Input
Amino acid sequence: MRELMRDLTVTDGPDEVTAVVTTAAGNNNMSPEYLTRAIRQYLPQYEIPFSAYHRMNVFTSDGTPFR
Output
């Protein structure tokens, strides 16, 4: 999964944890739900009662925002 992520930032607040992930698209893409599933499987001590996903931007292959 790590090779499919270009960038990962995790911040925690009083009632939530936010992960901002930049992933590749196309044939080697990663659904945001894969990260949630991996945490549930490999880090069961971190309970995830609710998850939501929001696409913030789309980038070209060189990292430029796609407009």
In short: The mean pLDDT is 83.
